[in-house]
Write a structure and sequence with these properties.
globular, four-stranded antiparallel beta sheet, alpha/beta, 16 strands, Aspartate Aminotransferase, domain 1, 438 residues, 15% strand, seven-stranded mixed beta sheet, Aspartate Aminotransferase, domain 2, homodimer, 14 helices
Amino acid sequence: MLGELETGPDLAADLLHGSLGDPSLTSMNFLNEITGRYPDAVSFAPGRPYEGFFDRASLHDDIEAFHEYLRTGTGASEAEADRALFQYGRTKGIVHGLIAAQLRADEGIDVDPESIVVTVGCQEAMFLTLRALRADERDVVLSLSPMYVGFTGAARLLDLPVLPVSGGTTGVDLDDLRETVRRARAAGRRPRACYMMPDFANPSGLSLDLPTRRALLELAEGENILLLEDNPYGMFHDGYGRLPTLKALDTARRVVYLGSFAKTVLPGARVGYVVADQRVRAADGTGSLFADELAKIKSMVSVNTSPVAQAVIGGALVRGGGSLAARNEPLRARYQRNLARVLAGLQRHLGDRTDVTWNAPTGGFFVVVEVGFPVTNEALERSAREFGVLWTPMAYFYVGDGGRRHLRLSFSLLTDEQIDEGLSRLAAFLAAEDDRTA
Amino acid sequence: MLGELETGPDLAADLLHGSLGDPSLTSMNFLNEITGRYPDAVSFAPGRPYEGFFDRASLHDDIEAFHEYLRTGTGASEAEADRALFQYGRTKGIVHGLIAAQLRADEGIDVDPESIVVTVGCQEAMFLTLRALRADERDVVLSLSPMYVGFTGAARLLDLPVLPVSGGTTGVDLDDLRETVRRARAAGRRPRACYMMPDFANPSGLSLDLPTRRALLELAEGENILLLEDNPYGMFHDGYGRLPTLKALDTARRVVYLGSFAKTVLPGARVGYVVADQRVRAADGTGSLFADELAKIKSMVSVNTSPVAQAVIGGALVRGGGSLAARNEPLRARYQRNLARVLAGLQRHLGDRTDVTWNAPTGGFFVVVEVGFPVTNEALERSAREFGVLWTPMAYFYVGDGGRRHLRLSFSLLTDEQIDEGLSRLAAFLAAEDDRTA
């Protein structure tokens, strides 16, 4: 923000794209701004990964490991391997083979490497997919609600409406999903896809059970829509019986799988990917892979994903023998311990209050707390100013109404002491809000 | 392309976004495809930088130099500097201060670092700018013609029409520019900006002279449009009297400056930027920087530019003492030598032909040759198959008609021997085409 504009504005805001006034952007800006104003608050707001295992030597080693892999694993000369890291490169990326191997090893997903497009984080993967799917103003997408703001933001940028689908008690109300598709069609719209995080969703923390996953795939087939499966947190499970991803269960190419290495390798690489093995047929009868169509779009957005950044991820995959499970075991254990500590702390501080409840995810980064008062930005401001504790209002994650009495606690970044102190402050804040509204 | 689709298509191409059928994509695909089919041809097609100075040790050194700069130059602790490289970070980027210093040192451009958004290459910079400027279907942009396909591609992705402006003899026909703006307004459109590369343009090789630059700025002010100045090749001049960039001459914030490090540091970092110091005023009277609006869009496209990739560029800037001129002197000398060799070779092989002419840029990567026959994909195919030489049809770079008898020669990647052999083959091809059409 600028103060006075001495010479008048150069551009009028109402002549810029409407997404710039989107409430989800305003919400996130408020959260960032308040975080900046209260640097000493314990913050349950950010969903960033734990930083304790970052290691600069490992960064260099990963790059060198990928270079070595190019030479010994693919027969490239030293100069060819250098060129792969340094020059412009293949639009779909250069670590697709390693990603396909990791998907097989860690996720039980078996796909042709050619169906993978390496992207600038999962955000670009969502953006490319939505751009392809919006042919004109009739197209709409659905999302399980509450929903990740990065998804609604990407859709907003493309003037693509997002229809919310109720989460219900299983994470998705299948009847509501079917009805939403049919209502949209009856209104002349084209519902193209439904977005979801089946494992430890951001922001709800919830996972879909196996029958629900199977029912979703059947519904997608029956209603002729795609499922956009986003899976940033699946690796951070409880160690007992992980459920298969939708993509692993997908026999009819109904699922576009959105992947991220921000939580499993390094946020700073900004490398994600999309698995798009759907077949596209043109009017002239020729066929192509959906991944190749997405690559065309990518060539107009970012040309290709930095090969240097891809080398960081590629090296991590090579050094893990094609899997990231072992590399992530210390992180998984840490997030699980934090989750348990948050749940135990909530029980200790708030267990005797019948008007405060919370869910109990078995993995991921998030727990949602329901309270008896309106969870507004004003309440967040009081929480920060008077009690030194930050969190995220769940209303940010709803299109329209919803989440008005819920707040999200993220625990990925925090130490034991911060969790204990933060929950103690949170309990004091909740008590004060009750007094306010009593 | 797939062969038979056993189970029918999953997606119909006509339900995907129209940009996927854009002719510029098809053209570039043909060029890539033919390059793949004739690996032994001498190729004057790609505009990639020379690779001989790539150095992996230098890559690691650049990253470490930036880390060291964060600690000693900005007072960050070791952990804070690590976090800056590894974690999610500032949407507008972390090398903005160093870029502002380099713009001052190397380009005579003096801007507040806050007006810079670091992007995933210059392509994302163009994309963000065009997204912001297209508020609705009334908006259009202009481009000097012939034009860079990355620009038309980004505009196509946003359903934003591009109106071509004739290059004329000075690189831009100012009357045509003014008339194009006025005609568009009269037709109810909103011309928002005109795109150009004032220095050694891709594909024409031409530069705008100083009076033309000043006249352009005046015209932009008078007609109330922005100028989008793209400057990837300015560093590769002839060493005598570089002209100031439009942005350096811009006293009224009419120029949005699009920058790239792909040619001056490393393509594989995929780091570019946009300088957007325009002020935006909202209906409620509040103001913001255009750069901050572009950052909001970036948060929905790619979140932020890989800090690891930014560190590569940041380190190069630090090691150059805030300038890239010394680092680029060997490259500049090489490109100048190649340019001179191409011009001399054309004279030697074709100097006695009155029906073949070419321009004589004083820098950059490109020379344009005009011939007496139609320069089509079929001609390119014959050139590759029968003569082993590749180039780019200039028609690729026109919206509508234009460039039908012109081809672009790019010489950035080639050795002396490749240039000599390639021009000898080109001369033989031209003679054969004359025989065909005689």
